[in-house]
Specification:
There is one protein chain. The radius of gyration is 14 Å and the shape is globular. It contains 1 helix and 10 strands; from the N terminus they run ββββββαββββ. Strands 3-2-9-10 form a 4-stranded mixed sheet, with no helix packed on it. Strands 5-4-6-7 form a 4-stranded antiparallel sheet. Helix content is 5%, strand content 47%. The protein is mainly beta.
Length: 110
Amino acid sequence: MAGYLTTHVLDTARGCPAAGLTITLFRLEGETRTELARMVTNADGRTDAPILPESEFATGSYELLFHAGPYLGEARFLEDIPIRFRMDEAAHYHVPLLLSPYGYSTYRGS
């Protein structure tokens, strides 16, 4: 199986998917941070395609940057939420974000 990366953003304050939230994916190599993709979540809080598809997958260190500020609006504490992680094997990596104006959590999903 080839590797790929997906995400899902849920707005826990409103109890719904976070539609219209911009996400940027970076590859990390030492001090170098290279942008690989920029997508916006759909009505289900997901991207329409994998953020990192099988054809571009490589093991290594990555950062997903969730641009939460514009999504959350005026009543917010959070701006950008960076999540750094490693992908060490060709597999499906799923990095969900549970979001509210004052906090968030994440985990390796399936």
